[in-house]
Amino acid sequence: MSNLTDLTVAGIRDGFRKGDFSAREVAEAFNAAVAAGKPLNAFLVETPEHALAAADEADRGRASAEFRPLSGVPLGIKDLFCTAGYQTTAASHILEGFVPTYESTITAKLFGAGAGMLGKLNLDQFAMGSSNETSYYGNVISPWRRKDGGNAALAPGGSSGGSSAAVAARMAPGATGTDTGGSIRQPAAFTGISGIKPTYGRCSRWGVVAFASSLDQAGPMARDVRDCAILLEAMSGFDPKDSTSLDLPVPQWEAGLSADLRGKKVGIPKEYRVEGMPPEIEALWQQGIAWARDAGAEIVEVSLPHTRYALPTYYIIAPAEASSNLARYDGVRYGERELPDHANLQEMYAATRAAGFGPEVKRRILIGTYVLSAGFYDAYYTKAQKVRALIARDFEQAFQQCDVLLTPTAPSAAFALGEKSADPLAMYLNDVFTVPASLAGLPAMSVPAGLDAQGLPLGLQIIGKPLDEQGVLNAGLAIEQRAGFNARAEKWW
Amino acid sequence: MSVDATTVRKIASLARIAVSDTEVDAMVPELNNILGWIEQLGEVDTDGVAPLAAVIPNHLRLRDDVVTDGNIRDQILKNAPQAEHGFFAVPKVIE
Amino acid sequence: MTESTYRIQGATGEWEVVIGLEVHAQITSNAKLFSGASTRFGAEPNANVSLVDAAMPGMLPVPNRECIRQAVRTGMAIDAQINKWSRFDRKNYFYADLPQGYQISQLYHPLVGEGTISIEPEEGQAKTIGIERIHVEQDAGKLMHDQHPTRSYIDLNRSGVALMEIVSRPDMRSPAEAGAYLRKLRAILRYVGSCDGNMEEGSMRADVNVSVRKPGDPFGTRTETKNVNSVRFVMAAIEHEANRQVDLIESGGTVVRETRLFDPDKGVTRSMRSKEDAHDYRYFPDPDLLPLELDDAFLAECRASLPELPDAKRARYEGPLGLTPYAAGVLTADVETARWFEALLAETARVQGKPEADVAKAASNWLISDLFGALNRLGKDITDSPVSPAQGGQLLGLVADGTLSGSLAKQVFEIMLETGDDPAKIVEERGLKQTTDTGAIDAVIADVLAANADKVAEYRGGKDKLFGFFVGQTMKAMAGKGNPGVVNERLKAALDN
Ligand SMILES: [Mg+2]
Ligand SMILES: [Zn+2]
């Protein structure tokens, strides 16, 4: 076999079944790639032994023709998922040294399906960020570089920046991500890979460090649409331990894949044509529309009138929920404790949290605390939840005229590290296309569709009706097949 | 609505995050910038709109009244910065 | 509302006291409100703790049906509105006994709305107290301060145990009314079975809101005295707090709205060091939980499973059963007494083959005077009475069928208390049966009359009063076993001969 790390999840699964290679060979190849990929800083913890153990079990199973859905497939796990016996920090200092005694539902499902773990992936601290620059453990550097020869270190997107970089750099065939306002889709777009955020409630949140509970959804990030379908099937399913989990059977998304869009209507929301959008993005979008038409879809223009209010709505709701979700990090039961001399309990809390949280996390906690505080709750939080209802209603109405929506994933290609980190608002605007679907809990994915003038990947986003992951995946597949995206980051590390 | 240094200190105290004067000075314009931006929601007519209660229509499930958990003190205390005699320990609290 | 006459005499005249109570009652359940850990009292520290209760990263709440059910049943028991749509909110604050950094509670949409509880204070008039709401929430853990010189220890066993917070309207006007309200509430909770009402174990505690005003004036500023854990202490806290406020106002001060603590040793309330600099709890709907929607079947089951409640029971005792208001009040004050009485009544009626109404008075009298007297003497509760309701019924049956006289019954009861034996067995073994054998009685009477010939002559000469003397002598000679009716009858016949 020439290069096992070039294989997709499906390629590994099928090749392993056929006996083209052993699971151990795959695990060793990826373990080596992870070790060699240190300059990207994608992994916070490397767990080669976990990948090998799962591989050996898969190899033993093969002897008796026992195959599980992910037998032989090693994966990267975003460090927001609690993993039993392996440090889980959410890329924060405040959880440094925290080793869960429990396994998140999603990682348990993946490991139960035969997958092994290559390591814990870097991210924006507590998943708050769009560039992976808020990690306490340093930036993740995108494997991609601009054609200008400047070798500027680029952002892999965020918050699942470790996941996107690892998959794009062939250090993992697939990885878990989480998406609160675009944290799967935007980094996927920045690094030329695919990623899907399912309907809110498809993937259990149990054991995933919470950012904003009403928005957080896990999902897979991988090289192509088929891999996303395979991984999502393994990750999804009802979990009685999560009150917001949907008690529904998991469809066979891989088996249902079809790039034939005849009879389908693809909606183009006119409000996504935002001011100042680079012409390249607009051109890519038009190209995507042409591909959808080519796949047999009818194109309809739709309106989502409250689109421009999605970001400010998000930046009230997500920080409000986060300010409360992160109250548990207080230095009492786990993680860092900062105890200045003679400090009382409340002073210990304040010192611990001051030292343990990074600036962006603090910023959001403060915003969230403010919007919930006495006298402001209705003006901010209640108002935002009302606008959120209007945004959800916009989608409902649009979906009376079409089956899926097609939009750009992000307003630009990857930017350089440091380029936007000084201006929080400019950073927030990155999520302008991804946030509305998050607010409405809808399934949405990004597929790589082309390159910008600098040779950097650009993604197209497909948004579907609630529970219609299949429609999203199928439209994604139709784009994928026509885009024929095969660019990859030149290895420089 | 805009925040001043006093308000920022008050919020930080509510959130139990110690802040230095320099940090407060930096935060005031930053938070005002963000708050000013999110206030554009005021433009939206939301009369008669109910705040969104559940993202995806779903019902709250209730579990049976059965003891299925507990007796895992070692796990509970395992990551504690300070645990003694089966308790978590913190600086003495005067009530 | 009936006016209360309780007043505090101040230097400037009379003051009226206005009281509202927020009672935290632990819901009876096996597992916690949002986790599967046990609620058992007295476990090793941090044993009844799940990952959820310790607020480990990524943990999520899943509500316990039984806790919701019990709160709904409690609401139904006070004729309250049950909200089919409610939801849980987070109350955010930092404290060492609160692992999540927030308490899951219900502020905006509580499970139970307005209801009422009728009370009969020991002093003053009967009245109805309004209930504003009942909401369901989590209890906090426990902090221990006396085990280490510089550290406090945290035990999370109680963290996450389900509570009902029962909020009254400010409808009470005296410590006696507050005491009656608490006792009545406790009785209702115990009837319903939603809370064991055990104040020593912390199953019930009250936040006491007190203000004072000149009669007819608008409400004054109130203070809240937290976590008072007995009826007596609540009454004492009100008394002290009301007097403190009157003194304060009359000396030119103003009452500040604050949280206070009751010191049971000194009988005073004192201001709590304001542990939360600003009370800004930033309530918002818990995004980990969906709205709680109850369907008609659930509500119907809750209603169908409600027992007869104290007020209804009392009315039935006074009406169809014909008991005195006093007896009906005593027998219904606590669910265990009522339960015992009804078992006794059923057995008494069965043994005698009579309707319950015909034997209710005898059963009630025996329970209130004989049984309660004995239990009091023995320092026992009705739940650990050495005599069972069935045995009580048998005893009353033996009286009714003439086997035992009243005094013999008392003797037999004493033996029952000691041995736990059935009355029939005692009567049999110890020959305590009363005699109705006229032959035997006549023989004794003949002896008595022979031995007291002088008195017989006096009696026959018109000294009627001596009849009692002959009865006494005859009974004494029969060691109390003579049937009083038969003895009377035969004596009369013999003397009037
Ligand atoms: Mg209270
Ligand atoms: Zn409460």
Explain this structure.
The complex is a heterotrimer of chains A (493), B (95) and C (497). By secondary structure, chain A is α/β, with parallel strands linked by helices. Chain A is built from 15 helices and 11 strands. Chain A has a domain at 4-262: Amidase signature (AS) enzymes (Alpha-Beta Complex), CATH 3.90.1300.10. Chain A is 37% helix and 13% strand. With 95 residues, chain B is mainly alpha-helical. Chain B has a domain at 5-42. In chain B, strand 1 and strand 2 (87-91) form a beta hairpin. The longest helix of chain B has 18 residues, at 21-38. Chain B starts with a helix and ends with a strand. The model of chain B has no long low-confidence stretch (mean pLDDT 95). Helices cover 40% and strands 18% of the residues of chain C. In chain C, strands 1, 2, 6, 7, 10, 11, 12, 13 and 14 form a 9-stranded mixed sheet that branches. Chain C has a 3-stranded antiparallel sheet with strand order 5-4-15, with no helix packed on it. Chains in contact: A-B, A-C, B-C. Strand 2 (87-91) of chain B pairs antiparallel with strand 9 (151-155) of chain C, so a sheet runs across the interface. Bound molecules: magnesium ion and zinc ion.
SSE topology:
The complex is a heterotrimer of chains A (493), B (95) and C (497).
Chain A: H1 9-18, H2 23-36, E1 43-46, H3 48-63, E2 74-78, H4 105-112, E3 116-121, H5 161-168, E4 174-179, H6 185-191, E5 194-197, E6 217-222, H7 225-235, E7 265-269, H8 279-294, E8 298-302, H9 310-325, H10 345-356, H11 359-372, H12 377-398, E9 404-408, H13 424-428, H14 435-440, E10 444-451, E11 457-464, H15 469-483
Parallel strand pairs in A: 2-3, 7-8, 7-9
Antiparallel strand pairs in A: 1-3, 4-6, 5-6, 5-10, 9-11, 10-11
Chain B: H1 5-14, H2 21-38, H3 73-77, E1 83-84, E2 87-91
Antiparallel strand pairs in B: 1-2
Chain C: E1 8-10, E2 13-26, H1 65-77, E3 85-86, E4 89-92, E5 102-105, E6 115-119, E7 127-138, E8 142-144, E9 151-155, E10 162-168, H2 175-192, E11 204-213, E12 223-228, H3 231-250, E13 259-263, E14 268-271, E15 284-285, E16 292-293, H4 296-304, H5 310-318, H6 325-332, H7 335-352, H8 356-378, H9 389-400, H10 406-419, H11 423-430, H12 438-451, H13 453-460, H14 467-477, H15 484-495
Parallel strand pairs in C: 12-13
Antiparallel strand pairs in C: 1-2, 2-10, 2-11, 3-16, 4-5, 4-15, 6-7, 7-10, 8-9, 11-12, 13-14
Helix pairs in contact in C: 1-4, 2-3, 5-6, 7-8, 7-9, 9-10, 12-14, 12-15, 14-15
Magnesium ion is lined by residues 22, 207 of chain C.
